[in-house]
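# step 3/5: fold
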Amino acid sequence: MKTLVTGGAGFIGSHLCELLLSRGHDVVAVDSLTCGRLNNFLSFEKHPRFRFVKADIRDFETLKPAFRGIEWVFHLAGLADIVPSIEQPANYYSTNVTGTFNVLECAREHGARRLVYAASSSSYGIPEVYPTPETSPIKPQYPYALTKYMGEELVLHWAQTYKLPALSLRLFNVYGPRSRTTGAYGAVFGVFLAQKLNGKPFTVVGDGKQTRDFTFVTDVAEAFLRAAESEHSGEAMNVGSNNHYSVNRLVELLGGDVVHIPKRPGEPDCTFADVAKIRRLLDWQTRVSFEEGVRRMLERLEDWRDAPVWDPASISQATSSWFRYLGKEALS
């Protein structure tokens, strides 16, 4: 297939490009390089079936030519992180909502056969049920989560109204090589590895007993491919590991000193995906265990040699910013 990956120079996007090329597909990676890095292409940048297009998904006219002849579209481009979304809601809306609209219209105009969207499990907010099924209420706690869900709603509406075959994958705590190290929230693996490599203590939020459904990036890339290969449309599916692990367990596996920073309002104590739906519809499940995934990360520790390091002071400052923006009621 002739495929296009928005956010192709990003963490998950670059792994998806690599997988698609290994399965014989042509790949066009589209990225503005606001968050993505050209270094993420190093293992396949000279592949004869690979092409990079620098474009911003917010710029419809610049984006549109990249979609000519494309059969499968994987939409992973977007802005992440919590505090910046509170401080810059217009930027997040224009990227995660208007940008998604532009991708959908480019795909529809050029007759794409499939579209798969990278949604976020953060849209569930603080879930009422664990493991959390797709039927759980949507309760975004901050603009990032809200705009990602609005993007999903656009995707599913285009599937219904314009008959553009599309699926939305709600991703839970993806980790692996090339994960980013900036941003005070999320990306905990990249942040921790950069801290470890630079002799800094791990910045653990709260008591570290909170658990996360850590899912290895190659398994997530496989989920996107299975979604494109399927005949299903108009569905949202969780992508998780079928388990959850504490931050303290992660620190134990990585090995190192710890500095605790304040617990943050609006964050769940647990994320744990119910993956029955994606198993049933796409016959997908994870292959890389948590321990194996951490081992692979440590084997590639040097990848984080030149990565920026977030120290405890800067993360605490961002945490204070979050409290300030949410107001005193967030503390109750």
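# step 4/5: annotate
The chain has eleven helices and 13 strands.
# step 5/5: archive (pending)
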